[in-house]
Specification:
The protein has helices spanning 33-37, 53-65, 67-72, 86-96, 111-116, 159-167; strands at 12-17, 27-32, 41-47, 77-82, 103-106, 119-122, 128-131, 134-139, 142-148. By secondary structure, it is α+β, with helices and mostly antiparallel strands. It has one domain: Glutaredoxin. The strands form two sheets. Strands 2-1-5-4-3-8-9 form a seven-stranded mixed sheet. A hairpin with a 5-residue loop joins strand 6 (119-122) and strand 7 (128-131). The two termini are 24 Å apart.
């Protein structure tokens, strides 16, 4: 399992963009994790699935709401990672009004999630292999802090906890 001091796994996530800009075309675009995190401070949070109750009502809205405070604390980007396809993450981004505040990154095959060792098997609930709920502060591709939730919990991966770590 990934831990503080480790480098993010070299993998590719996908991002759906509805408008062209900054070299991104419309449609799913590959995001090389190593390149995208190089030289940046990233507030990364992951969750079991788009449109699920806790994720939609609490997790994503907290990061959107605290965007300005994250920027003031030196965070360059906020990433939301979920084992969903890029089209679902794009639609969820529109629904959650993440705009340019949170990058909604799809880990469709769960390759990134498996490489971190933070998988959650929800097969018995009809959802297959998913990501555990967690947050991490990443500096230049390395994990600076890591907050992993217990089963069914939402206590340590929230925006306020990671923001306090970014300020510290």
């Amino acid at each position: 399992m990934i831990k503080v001091g480790d480098t993010l796994p070299a993998s590719t996530l996908m991002e759906y963009s509805e408008v062209e800009g900054e070299g991104c075309s419309i449609g799913p675009n590959a995001v090389d994790v190593t390149q995208a995190s190089a030289g940046k401070t990233i507030a990364l949070f992951a969750l079991p699935g788009a449109y699920t109750p806790t994720c939609s009502a609490k997790h994503v809205p907290g990061y959107v709401e605290h965007f300005a405070q994250f920027k003031a604390a030196g965070v360059d980007e906020i990433w939301c990672v979920s084992v969903n396809d890029a089209f679902v993450m794009g639609a969820w981004a529109r629904d959650q009004k993440t705009g340019a505040k949170v990058r909604m990154l799809a880990d469709g095959s769960a390759a990134f999630t498996q490489a971190t060792g933070l998988t959650l098997d929800l097969t018995s609930r009809g959802m297959g292999l998913r990501s555990n709920r967690y947050s991490m502060l990443v500096k230049n591709g390395k994990v600076a802090s890591l907050n992993i939730e217990g089963p069914g919990k939402f206590e340590v991966s929230d925006a306020q906890t990671l923001l306090a770590q970014a300020k510290g």
